[in-house]
Amino acid sequence: DIQMTQSPASLSASLGETVTIECRVSEDIYNGLVWYQQKPGKSPQLLIYNVNSLHIGVPSRFSGSGSGTQYSLKINSLQSEDVASYFCQQYYDYPLTFGSGTKLEI
Amino acid sequence: VQLVESGGGLVQPGKSLKLSCSASGFTFRNYGMHWIRQAPGKGLDWVAYISPSSGTVYADAVKGRFTISRDNAKNTLFLQLNSLKSEDTAIYYCARRDSVSPYNWFPYWGQGTLVTVSS
User: Is residue B29 over pLDDT 90?
Assistant: First the structure.
């Protein structure tokens, strides 16, 4: 199975700051990675697909990058509504696997 | 696209439960569907996939105990959970891939149904 190591597990930042969440993968997934945002009590919502493509309606302060086995999610100009957990997911191969999540607090 | 799960509840270890996911807003028979679960306060775990032609793939943790199926006439996805263990306690989501991309990432999720396995 492809292992996803996501860091940090939790993150506290201030409004307006920039934060980065990392996802390290156990083998090359050829850019087969997406990011989700999950707010408390809600279903996950797609943020970014194909490493760096913003899903419809996602603010441009979110961006993704990476290749091979290292990927990251960057959030610029943090807003209060960004309080959530963030998960990476690889779709290169079955079983589909997710990172363990990053809980972002403002 | 709307996905609505049901069937969750409290069940004893070793017992069975059947979850449903009612789909609307798209041509259900044309899409593969997934079940993904999330233990309370934990991360996301992919559970199973069923193709439009009912081919299936399972996570090792549930293989031989869970069965994914679909009824295209009723636009409904199912997950039969047998021999339940405490570690199966989770919110179970059904999910569908994007309309254009053939890849398994999920812009569409249901609201989830909670399964609690406890004596």
Answer: yes
